[in-house]
Amino acid sequence: MSPDAPVGAERTGLGVSAVLAAALCTSLSGLLVRLTENADGWQILFWRSVFCIATLLIYLGWRHGARIGDRFLSIGRTGLLCSLTLGSSFITFIFALTSTTVANVAFTIGMAPIFAALLGWIFLRERVALRTVGFIGLSLGGIALMFSDGLATGGLSGNILALVTCLFYSATIVLLRGGRRVDMVPAVTIAAFWSCLVAAAIAPAGLSIGLYDMGIIGFMGVVQLAFQYIFFTAGVRHMPAAQAALLGRATVVLTPFWAWLGVGELPSLLTLAGGGLVLSAVLGQGLTALWLTRARAALR
Questions:
Q1: How far, in Å, CA of 231 to CA of 112, rounded?
Q2: Of the four listed, 14, 76, 123, 220, which is most buried by Cβ atoms within 10 Å?
């Protein structure tokens, strides 16, 4: 059954719960990075990836047993490209969080579905509706406000890294849409392996960290990274894709909320204003996509 197929109320409820669980896992990223004490960005990236790989391999082994190798082979060239862009986003994401506020990162990366529409137009020749152009303009206005805040507070490099992360993630979305169906769990496993190799090769301070930081980063790798993809992949099987995408955008609000609640990190007024524009754009695009999906279904 495809993600867009009509489903029963019970299965839809399971799908909604799984996608919201994925959003909750994703939203913990900023808080967990802030809770680390001595680990640098490369160490966080390496150990988060190690724990993520171990978790996903256990999950795949439980799901597929001896056929686990076939699951990796099945992702094909499109899946490998997705792994490269997604793994690159893992790298820039961690360093964005260590260089600017959690809110700036969350709001910027939240634009990924909108940027994906722009990349789809450039590379796949997909038609871009006028309303999408409006949402792109609105989100760029929000980014401009947050970049001006970065200039004032010294967080410009982090804002740029967040934007690069958004572009990598947008490219992943376009690859998934433009190619055949890809099993995301093996693809994420390879992405984590790729980011792990890069961190191991570059880490200037070595990879040894304290037990406290290992516990925080281990939780990141297992829950915040691995579980988000396990939950989301399970959830989209039981609900319309447009609805899953809209629910997933709860992370745009939850991520800075947890950082404020957990470590008292307050966004600036410019960040809140820019984030408000981005949030309006992503919610507008998501609600429009959901309405169009239901309208088409009603005409069938």
A1: 20
A2: 220
> Rounded to whole angstroms, how far apart are CA atoms 210 and 276?
38
SS3 of residue 98 by DSSP: coil
The token duo for 165 is: 């992360």
Q: What's the pLDDT tens digit per position in 165-207?
A: 999 998 988 887 765 577 889 999 999 999 999 999 999 989 9
**pLDDT per residue over 227-280, tens digit each?**
999 998 888 777 766 667 777 788 888 999 999 999 999 888 888 888 888 888
13: left (phi over 0), alpha (psi -120 to 50) or beta: alpha
pTM of the model as a whole? 0.86
Q: What number of other Cβ atoms are within 10 A of residue 237's Cβ?
A: 16
Strand runs (DSSP E) across 13-95, as ranges? none
What is d(CA 219, CA 6) in angstroms, rounded to the nearest whole number?
A: 36
- What does the pLDDT look like over 74-93, one tens digit per residue? 999 989 999 999 999 999 99
CA distance 273 to 279: 10
Q: Which residues are CB-neighbours of 11 under 8 A, at least 6 positions away?
A: 238, 239
